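Dear colleagues,

As part of the handover before I leave the project, I'm documenting each prediction I ran so the next person doesn't have to rerun anything. This entry is a single chain, and its sequence is reproduced below.
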Amino acid sequence: MSNTKQILAMLKSRTEGDDEQFYSIALQIAASEARKGHRTTAEELRAAVDDARATISRGASVAIPFSQPRGELEALIDLHEPKLKLKDVILHNEVISQLKDLIRQQTKREWLREHGKTPNRCILSLGPPGSGKTMMAEALAGELHLPLFVIRLESLITRFMGETASKLRLVFEETLKRRGVYLFDEFDAIGSKRSATNDVAEMRRVLNSFLQLMEQPNATDSILVGATNHSELLDRALLRRFDLVLEFKMPSDAQIKALVKIYIRPLKHPKLDWKSITKAAQGLSQSEIARASEDAVKTAILDERKTITTNDVLRRLNDRSKMRAVFSISER
């Protein structure tokens, strides 16, 4: 039988509306039963949790909101309720395969723990701006029915000695208390090479703190996602600390077509010239193609049309290419 502390913890999590914590404790009890040789009971408990989660994922009439971090954490972490799933994100097959493996490990994490193993949970995302790194983090949270917490680096990093490392420790303590997906965007601000000429002792201490905190045991198996556009700036010590290093590339022709089809819904699009569209989209990121497609839809709506044409899409893609060219000139 489960002990009194576990029962009290389950009741408390239920009162607070923390379903994930409730299920986590139930799975801990299942693991305990399995260790005692009560395999049938353990399997029944796991099956009951899976059924309950599946019922919620099919959609209740009223969504249960995730709770926003409070106190000092309120300035450090932004809560995002995920609206995407993996099917909503256009990624290369290798990245999708790696994410599906991580999702499987996370979904069966208690089973792994019964065998003395822990699921992968640390991801490093590398790639150009707009290539889908942030969308991936949201989709991952959506697949696992977890909140997405975005770390506000402008609040985390300060000029006062020791304060950044202290705030970082607060964030990691939250990952131990509240299971979720924690996104460190522009991760190079923390993970830059310790030997960089523009580095200072304080930021070296921050990176060392991050590396140490990453390796601490985490009972909630919260997922850490570091995302950066500048992989060349990262300290090499980070690579062996992350379970997955995902490389995000510019979309292929097939992915461009899939992206445009997603974002021109619900308008009809008979006989689009996909060869011209994919050619015009070369060099543009996922987010730029998505925005161009949405702008084409807005034009059709304002023209009171129910269909979208090749010229609608080409015009907006060309606009985005011109914007990119202007930024490239200004950076020289």
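The chain has a mean pLDDT of 82. Residues 10 and 151 are 29 Å apart (CA to CA).

All the best with the project,
I.
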